[in-house]
Design brief:
Structural class: alpha+beta
Number of strands: 4
Strand order of the largest sheet: 1-2
Strand content: 5-15%
Length: 107
């Protein structure tokens, strides 16, 4: 089976027109999360349970007859894309390698 790898190197190290390079201090952590390989069904299930498929904070609240929408706040997490990728790799492992039905983990 082929291994899918993803790098954020170009995304997180910006070259600004003045020649100044802006460093991402979370880059080592991003690289570590991106490099996690899923090889165990128990770990894959745990990851799918811990990382939600949609933002749990997004909702509509009705107060005094007015509806207020709270937008998804998960994108404020600086590691959001890496966690979504890790969850996807876990779902793919469970589905493709283990042959399990992963519909219970999909919203």
């Amino acid at each position: 089976m082929a291994t899918i790898t993803h790098t954020h190197e170009d995304y997180h190290h910006h070259q600004i027109s003045t020649g100044y390079v802006k460093k991402d201090i979370l880059f080592p952590l991003r690289r570590w999360v991106d490099g996690v390989e899923i090889r165990n069904a128990k770990i894959a299930h745990l990851i799918c349970r811990i990382i939600p498929c949609c933002c749990p904070f997004e909702r509509d609240i009705t107060l005094f007859g007015h509806t207020f929408h709270i937008p998804p706040l998960c994108k404020l997490n600086p590691l959001y894309d890496e966690f979504v990728g890790l969850r996807f790799r876990s779902l793919t492992y469970l589905s493709d390698v283990c042959g399990e039905d992963v519909t219970k983990y999909i919203c």
